[in-house]
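Methods — Computational structure assignment.
A single polypeptide chain was analysed. Its primary sequence is given first, followed by the predicted tertiary structure written as structure tokens.
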Amino acid sequence: MRRIGWATGASLAVFAAASGATAQEDALRELRARNAAQQSAEIAWRDALAAQREIVARQDQLQTTLMLRELDTARTTPPGSNGLIIPPPAPPPETGPDSFHAQMDRMEGLTQNALARSNAPVRAVRPASDH
């Protein structure tokens, strides 16, 4: 009888341990399910936030494009001209002593003369090998 009591006690202990393990597994499954649901909700919230940022970025880009277009129009069309664009005056023909090319040629000549004058003393001194 003692053996039966001992076997019964052992089987009850095993049953209690098994039911405790099952309860722990159920608690872990519930915790995992809750964490998975929370993670899914956080991912959905981040996706919604990213979509909102994309919308704001596109709106800002559109506003910038419109502002640049207005500024470009204001630059090419002065205020009060009602869309009439007056062409800039044509530059005068470049002839005579005041033309750009004539002035550039004159500057080149002056530069060459100044360079020749500054090099003259150096050329006047001969190296010792030339004596």
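Note: The longest helix spans residues 2-76.
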